[in-house]
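Lab notebook, design round three. We kept the backbone fixed and only want residue identities now. Task for the bench partner: fill in a sequence for the structure below.
Input structure tokens:
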């Protein structure tokens, strides 16, 4: 089963979904992990409170890039409130593999970037938190 998950991660790394640029994005955020050099720029287009466009660019390890690919698939078509409810554990579930403590920042880079994007859009992130309280 671990080999299947590894193949799944590698497939998202080699052929990431939603990779590209949204020229007229409503919000854009570049996140980085200075410990390993991973970088992700995530962009959102929101229409009537729904994420109708999402894209990312970046470079880094297979975990960080696959995480961004999976997360962008997950949020497309959801309301910003539904997107704000996505927790870090939900992203780990999407990855479907055990992530070592050393690789956790790689896996969470896309989630952290998404939290900043939502904050920039004025969406409260996390349970009962305002964007300012969430560190946006």
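Proposed sequence:
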């Amino acid at each position: 089963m671990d080999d299947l998950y590894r193949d799944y991660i590698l497939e998202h790394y080699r052929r990431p979904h939603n990779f590209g640029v949204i020229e007229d994005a409503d919000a854009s955020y570049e996140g980085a992990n200075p410990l390993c050099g991973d970088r992700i720029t995530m962009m959102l287009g929101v229409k009537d409170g729904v994420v109708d466009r999402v894209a990312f660019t970046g470079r880094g390890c297979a975990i960080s890039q696959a995480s961004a690919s999976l997360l962008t698939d997950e949020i497309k078509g959801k309301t910003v409130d539904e997107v704000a409810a996505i927790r870090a554990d939900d992203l780990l579930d999407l990855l479907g593999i055990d992530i070592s403590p050393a690789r956790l920042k790689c896996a969470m880079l896309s989630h952290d970037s998404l939290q900043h994007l939502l904050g920039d859009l004025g969406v409260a992130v996390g349970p009962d938190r305002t964007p300012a309280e969430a560190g946006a």
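Keep this in mind before ordering anything: Residues 104-120 form the longest helix (17 residues).
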